[in-house]
């Protein structure tokens, strides 16, 4: 495995992610931001943030699998949420939990959450991008 996740002493331990990822692999993989489209380009879960989060994570897993990777290879994730407010955190975490259960993973690499005004398609509520390192 090319990624070791660390929570350094002196920094808060956060349930949703680790503070540091140490990469030792040799291939960098940069995924385009994944939105809540299914394989046919149909938006999954219009108006349902948790459903869209789950689909985004499934899409990240699909993209990683295509190049021989898994969530264990993800060094960093960036999550963009439309009209973010802290009261949306339970929906976000519900979607991540559902994706983790469906995929059999615990996606907790370092991450950044950014609130945005809008995404490419009005019904998209979230976009998830990832950087992975493969051996």
Q: How would you describe what is shown here?
A:
- The protein is of the alpha+beta class.
- The protein has a single domain, classed as 60s Ribosomal Protein L30, Chain: A (2-Layer Sandwich), CATH 3.30.1330.
- Helix content is 24%, strand content 27%.
- The protein is built from two helices and six strands.
- The strands form two sheets. A four-stranded mixed beta sheet has the order 3-6-4-5, with helices on one face. It has a two-stranded antiparallel sheet with strand order 1-2.
- Helix 1 runs parallel beside helix 2.
- The termini are close together.
How do the strands and helices of this protein lay out in sequence?
Elements: E1 3-6, E2 20-23, E3 27-30, H1 49-66, E4 74-82, H2 89-103, E5 111-116, E6 126-134
Parallel strand pairs: 4-5
Antiparallel strand pairs: 1-2, 3-6, 4-6
Order of helices and strands: EEEHEHEE
Name of the CATH architecture: 2-Layer Sandwich
Number of contiguous helices: 2
Task: List how many beta strands DSSP finds.
Answer: 6
Calculate the mean pLDDT score and round it: 95
Q: What fraction of residues sit in β-strands? A: 25-35%
The biggest sheet, with number of strands, parallel, antiparallel or mixed sense and barrel status, is:
4 strands, mixed
Provide the CATH topology.
60s Ribosomal Protein L30, Chain: A
Shape: globular
Which structural class matches the secondary elements?
Answer: alpha+beta
The first-level CATH class is given as Alpha Beta
Q: From the alpha-carbon coordinates, what is the Rg to the nearest angstrom?
A: 14 Å
Distance between the termini: 7 Å
Order of strands, widest sheet = 3-6-4-5
